[in-house]
């Protein structure tokens, strides 16, 4: 402890005299505060030092909108905390949860935090209770979910929430607080990171995690046990309503973290019956994995952009595991769970060429399983596609987003040409890799002509799977700002929907209509054409040798759980209060 404080003080002195080193120091200090301080029992003095450091960090990052602002009061008022020191039992119980509207039952943030807790806090009992509304409508109503949680007698419930899931989750928080008033509720994930004020303002929420969560979740365990002051990396709502703010963590070193824990998703040690993938093959275990985090691009609609902007040490943003360590982990997973296919969920698989070359070479030798990756057309040259295919790459998912070159560059921030898209798609085809394209429809100021170009370009390349999503405005992104400035946002719209192919075949704009550009009826009409194209053209197959006998369809996997009939009108849902949540959600998406 004293060595740690000494080191911190020396660094603080250095700060005063060597302003040029400020950024570097900021990172050094953060390393101390995250890696070391979070593991060491603290005193009030220690808390204060951390807060001073936080405040300095805040001054240095005043332009980064996503970075939390530390509280003015330097001394953490423990007496005002509702939960500080309230956990006294030897084996605290923590329940993770997330919202799954499409049947997906894996969430990597939870896997990563669970692994960290199991390594650093083995005495903590880590449970998972996701809201799987498509699995069992009755069990996952807010009331029934809250009843189930009450029976668990937990010390903390921690949700990972994406922004589009915020509104559907609100009734769950209310029910939880009603049934278990003394259970603290923590929310992390993109909703908490990019809509901090909106999230903490919810009266039922006690803590939010404003950045990366592994060390922060450890800190809240220590905070609840009364071992530290505030939970560093979190904001806390105190008893008098004051918000105690600490700075967001940015975990730049993946090697310091354990690999994600998949046991938390399995049932009795097996993945049989766990819906681990939307697109993957049937009859085999498809395991989602990540070789790293972060993407160097700045698409205007994507949350990678504000996170990258606010990242303090840019050189640590693109993170990858060591190829050898990653492959060893894949081997372990393959053998432990009998995996048949890996789905790489990295934002951009090829964010580091050196890594990818080395990784493919070892993967090919040691893993010998088919896989899919996310990529950008800019990097999908002949050599890349050939090397990927040789390593076992079955499908590449890539974004076209709009078929209109000019709109795509100007509004979406993607500067590739249509020629590049066509070449990349052809390179994949020649290498024998399936193509799954992502396309956005109904983005700000998009016209009917733009949308038609998207369909045309996809017709030209004929991907084995054409996927399209209604645009969702995501707070913190440049496109959200444009939409706001253009007066297009419907700020509290609760029916942000994105399950394009399954939401009752009725497409509704998530923005205010601009009839002179794109009317609601044109939008729906073109989406119907897109849907027809998707169904006619779909040839994504998982049969060995790429034969076409077993094509995936939109009704496979989680999709098959979604019914097609018309939703009940909203008013009827309100009247029949305790109707199944499943129908409620169908209504919700078509509102
Ligand atoms: C993998 C992925 C998916 C997968 C898996 C989703 C899932 N169930 O987890 C698939 C392909 C299914 C998917 C689908 C969707 N996704 Co997605 N996805 C991603 C991706 C590429 C990686 C996410 C990830 O696992 N990262 C690795 C983990 C370890 O890091 P992390 O998520 O940042 O988590 C850290 C912190 O956020 C924090 N944290 C997170 N949760 C919590 C909870 C607690 C309690 C704490 C303390 C901390 C904490 O700690 C974590 C560890 O440090 C991101 C892109 C990105 N830049 O992150 C988009 C992203 C998360 N997806 C996004 C969206 C919008 C969606 C969809 C809604 C898209 C759509 N149009 O359909 C759907 C929703 C699907 C669903 N089931 O609900 C957005 C979310 C934006 C937002 N503001 O919420 C992102 C950021 C991409 C974007 N467009 O900007 N997605
Ligand atoms: S390439 Fe993908 S992950 Fe990267 S900024 Fe663009 S949309 Fe986001």
Can you put this structure into words, describing what you see?
With 591 residues, this protein is of the alpha/beta class. It folds into 3 domains: 2-62, no CATH class; 78-245, 3-Layer(aba) Sandwich (Rossmann fold); 287-307 and 334-346 and 363-588, Transcription Regulator spoIIAA (2-Layer Sandwich). The protein contains 20 helices and 16 strands. It has helices at residues 2-17, 22-36, 44-60, 108-120, 142-152, 166-179, 190-194, 196-201, 214-224, 304-310, 323-337, 353-366, 382-391, 405-412, 418-431, 448-461, 478-485, 520-537, 570-575, 581-590, and strands at 93-100, 125-128, 131-132, 156-160, 185-188, 207-209, 234-237, 243-245, 285-289, 292-293, 319-320, 339-344, 371-375, 393-401, 434-441, 465-470. Strands 1, 2, 3, 4, 5, 6, 7 and 8 form an 8-stranded mixed beta sheet that branches. Strand 1 (93-100), helix 4 and strand 2 form a beta-alpha-beta unit. It is globular, with a radius of gyration of 24 Å. The N and C termini lie far apart (57 Å). Cobalamin binds at residues 100-102, 104, 107-109, 112, 158-160, 162-164, 186, 188-191, 193-194, 209, 212-214, 216-217, 251, 278, 290, 293, 302-304, 345, 347, 469, 472, 474, 498.
Give the topology, please.
Blueprint: H1 2-17, H2 22-36, H3 44-60, E1 93-100, H4 108-120, E2 125-128, E3 131-132, H5 142-152, E4 156-160, H6 166-179, E5 185-188, H7 190-194, H8 196-201, E6 207-209, H9 214-224, E7 234-237, E8 243-245, E9 285-289, E10 292-293, H10 304-310, E11 319-320, H11 323-337, E12 339-344, H12 353-366, E13 371-375, H13 382-391, E14 393-401, H14 405-412, H15 418-431, E15 434-441, H16 448-461, E16 465-470, H17 478-485, H18 520-537, H19 570-575, H20 581-590
Parallel strand pairs: 1-2, 1-3, 1-4, 4-5, 5-6, 9-12, 12-13, 13-14, 14-15, 15-16
Antiparallel strand pairs: 6-7, 7-8, 10-11
Helix pairs in contact: 1-2, 2-3, 4-9, 5-6, 11-12, 12-13, 13-15, 16-18
């Amino acid at each position: 402890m004293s060595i740690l404080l000494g080191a911190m003080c020396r660094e603080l002195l250095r700060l005063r005299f060597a302003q040029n080193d400020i950024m570097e120091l900021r990172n050094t200090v953060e390393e101390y505060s995250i890696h070391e301080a979070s593991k060491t029992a603290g005193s009030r003095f220690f808390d204060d030092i951390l807060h001073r450091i936080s405040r300095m960090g805040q001054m240095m990052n005043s332009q980064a909108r996503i970075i939390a602002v530390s509280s003015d009061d330097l001394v953490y008022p423990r007496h005002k905390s509702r939960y500080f020191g309230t956990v006294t039992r030897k084996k605290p119980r923590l329940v993770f949860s997330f919202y799954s509207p499409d049947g997906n039952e894996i969430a990597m943030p939870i896997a990563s935090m669970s692994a960290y807790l199991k390594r650093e806090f083995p005495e903590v009992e880590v449970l998972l209770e996701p809201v799987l509304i498509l699995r069992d409508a009755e069990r996952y109503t807010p009331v029934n979910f809250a009843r189930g949680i009450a029976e668990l007698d937990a010390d903390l419930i921690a949700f990972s929430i994406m922004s589009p899931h915020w509104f559907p989750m609100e009734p769950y928080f209310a029910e939880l607080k009603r049934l278990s008033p003394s259970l603290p509720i923590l929310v992390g994930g993109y909703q908490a990171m990019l809509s901090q004020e909106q999230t903490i303002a919810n009266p039922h929420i006690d803590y939010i995690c404003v950045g990366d969560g592994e060390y922060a979740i450890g800190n809240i365990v220590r905070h609840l046990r009364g071992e530290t002051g505030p939970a560093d990396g979190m904001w806390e709502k105190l008893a008098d309503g004051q918000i105690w703010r600490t700075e967001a963590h940015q975990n730049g070193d993946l090697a310091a973290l354990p690999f994600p824990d998949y046991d938390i998703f399995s049932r009795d040690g097996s993945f049989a019956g766990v819906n681990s993938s939307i697109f993957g093959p049937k009859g085999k275990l498809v395991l989602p994995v990540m070789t790293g985090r972060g993407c160097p691009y700045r698409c205007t609609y994507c949350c990678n952009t504000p996170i990258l902007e606010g990242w303090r040490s840019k050189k640590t943003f693109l993170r990858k595991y060591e190829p050898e360590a990653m492959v060893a982990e894949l081997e372990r997973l393959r053998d432990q769970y009998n995996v048949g296919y890996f789905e790489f969920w990295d934002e951009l698989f090829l964010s580091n060429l050196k890594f990818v070359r080395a990784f493919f070479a070892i993967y090919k030798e040691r893993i010998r399983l088919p896989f899919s990756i996310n990529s950008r057309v800019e990097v999908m040259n002949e050599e890349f596609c050939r090397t990927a295919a040789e390593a076992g790459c079955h499908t590449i998912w890539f974004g076209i987003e709009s078929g209109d070159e000019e709109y795509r560059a100007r509004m979406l921030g993607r500067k590739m040409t249509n020629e590049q898209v066509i070449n990349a798609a052809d390179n994949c085809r020649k290498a024998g890799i399936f193509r799954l394209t992502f396309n956005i429809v109904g983005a700000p100021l998009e016209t009917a002509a733009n949308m038609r170009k998207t369909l045309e370009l996809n017709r030209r390349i004929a991907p084995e799977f054409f996927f399209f999503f209604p645009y969702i405005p995501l707070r913190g992104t440049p496109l959200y700002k444009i939409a706001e400035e253009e007066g297009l946002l419907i700020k509290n719209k609760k029916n942000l929907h994105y399950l394009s192919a399954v939401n009752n075949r009725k497409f509704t704009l998530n923005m205010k209509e601009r009839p002179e550009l794109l009317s609601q009826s044109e939008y729906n009409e073109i989406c119907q054409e897109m849907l027809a194209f998707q169904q006619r053209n779909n040839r994504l197959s998982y049969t060995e040798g790429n034969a076409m006998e077993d094509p995936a369809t939109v009704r496979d996997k989680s999709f098959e759980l979604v019914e097609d009939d018309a939703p009940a009108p909203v008013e009827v849902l309100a009247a029949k209060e305790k109707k199944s949540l499943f129908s409620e959600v169908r209504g919700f998406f078509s509102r």
